[in-house]
Amino acid sequence: MDDIFGIPAPLLFGQLLLGLINGAFYAMLSLGLAVIFGLLNIVNMAHGAQFMMGAFCAWMLLAWAGIGYWWALILSPIIIGFTGIVLEKLFISKLYKLDHLYGLLLTFGLALIIEGVFRNEFGSSGLPYRIPPELSGAWDLGFMFMPIYRGWVVVAALILCLATWLIIEKTRLGAYLRAATENAALVQAFGVNVPRMVTLTYGFGVALAAIGGVLAAPIYSVNPQMGSNLIIVVFAVVVIGGMGSILGSILTGFALGIVEGLTKVFWPEASATVIFVIMAIVLLARPAGLFGRA
Amino acid sequence: MQFDRRSLIAGGSALALGGLASRSPRAQAANTIKLGVLNDQSGVYRDISGPTSVACVRQAVQDAGSHGFNVEVLVADHQNKPDVGSNIARQWIDRDGVDVILDVPNSAVALAVNGVVREKNKVYLNSTAATADLTGPQCSPNTVHWTYDTWMLARSTGGAMVKAGGDSWFFITADYAFGHALERDTSNFVKAQNGKVIGTVRHPLGNTDFSSFLVQAQSSRAKVVGLANAGADTINAVKQAAEFGLTRRGTKLAVLLMFINDVHGLGLQAAQGLVCTETFYWDLNDRTRAFTAKVKPHLAGNLPSMSHAGCYAAALHYLKAVADMGAAAAKADGAAAVARMKAMPTEDDCFGAGSIRADGRKIHPSYLFEVKAPNESKGAWDYYKLLQTTPAEDAFRPMAEGACPMVRS
Predict the structure, then answer these.
(1) Where is the Leucine-binding protein domain (chain B) (predicted)?
(2) Which end of chain B is more exposed for a tag (fewer CB within 10 A), N or C?
């Protein structure tokens, strides 16, 4: 078998594919962040906690109500999205007139509280959640063993990302949203209920995080820290892509997943830092991010 | 200025009272042993240490009974940061008069605290950290390493794997003191039995996705993939190993450190068939069951693993030594208290009869367990079947091989 940079080609292809799968999670989470930041101007630090709540919600539905994976995939985002709406109404809506920093601090505080409550209730070792029987098993691709579930994650993430992008860029509703971010007062003058639209947008962003959580539950340990491990990387993705740029966050999510996957082959110890190195370089060269408008 | 008798008496008695008031807590402090439980209350190692360790130490205080001195238990969270851990240890000893520091999971923090306690001549009873260096090059007259260590895990789990024909290994290692020590000790075992280590990959602590490392391990064609990590890292790696069909081509997974709380988090479906080593299991015998029944009401759904049992047994044995030598002497000289602990045989419900060696290593048998399949388990936390027992004298690294400066002569 041929070698590429001293690494056997099959191994390299395998890592590219795995990078794409991890990129799917980054893309899904950074998409939610980008939507919320783009339309609400809130840096949603609670996004990781909401991702975790999505996974826990799937577990609770199964353990307490016997509701399986597929229903959880629909119900969990609705339930967690609703908690997001409540949060927005109670707290976040008070901060739109203030500096970004206040929103960041508030959501960071909320994330710590939410994670603390879950840790007290469920401990830190995590809870078991099985891969649904329809998606268990794997394909032997020759160069690697490809679990069917991972393939499903990539497909689901691509569909979600594409759908969100289409809604915001190509529909009338999306046009209202984008207009409201440019000039809320004017859009309101045309008879659009802007505060409600903003509330629903936050709920939608949170629901995206929750779907990510449900998709992650069968493959990652369902524990209270699962979101905070991921969220820092996802923030870096958003910064690299350009704050608020939807397409940017999707593309950057997948691309950085691949970069990280390759780093795990060539220099595994650096795999946790490589994304931040890229972030630093991007910030120096293009402070608005790769796809951002300065 | 004129004083009459009445005001003199009043002033005098106030002075006397003031003197008394300030003297009595000091008198009490001289007669109070302070145990500080320093562990992870909020992170990945919370369930294997955390509040359950605190409850077990409190149980030990209760079981030790009254011997004419008071015992106070303090708790702090070291957040898995060596600087935070050693700062708390310093503050506790300098400002709060803490005599003993207990538990301390995370080998990096454990080694940092080891230095502080030795410098201040207090007592360090480590239960949950794994690194065998605590009784090796870094051994200290103030330290007892109670429950387990990397050498003992390597011998029990690693040895069983090699014996079953696993002579080529690939390691997936947590990139800090603990992972390095566990990988080193296991590699030594594998090599000593004519096995070879084909490759190793190091991942940061708190890694979420192991697929990349597992695929590397798979393509190395090693017979055994050794997981030299702990807690959530192990859970994620085991879960994903099953997903990627690691064991389907005959590769074996060696989980070098797993606690019963991790098995609980994995679920029997994912964990069945794995082998792991612990020195305590709640369902091992009548005494361990009795101990578990006693502490269970204070544990909020968790069950004690070997690390928690170690906190209980270490605190109990220390309090026996204090009762023997007197609280004042124990407080004055930590090394003397540890020496007294070493001179006395240990006896408790969790580990039975045992002893502490000159290098600070507590010795007791180690048990190799296999995780039950879901249909074999009779109820909640019925997870292990016993495969083999290594007697106390063989379970831990021989003192002469540890390179501990205290026993070199």
Answers:
(1) 32-372
(2) N
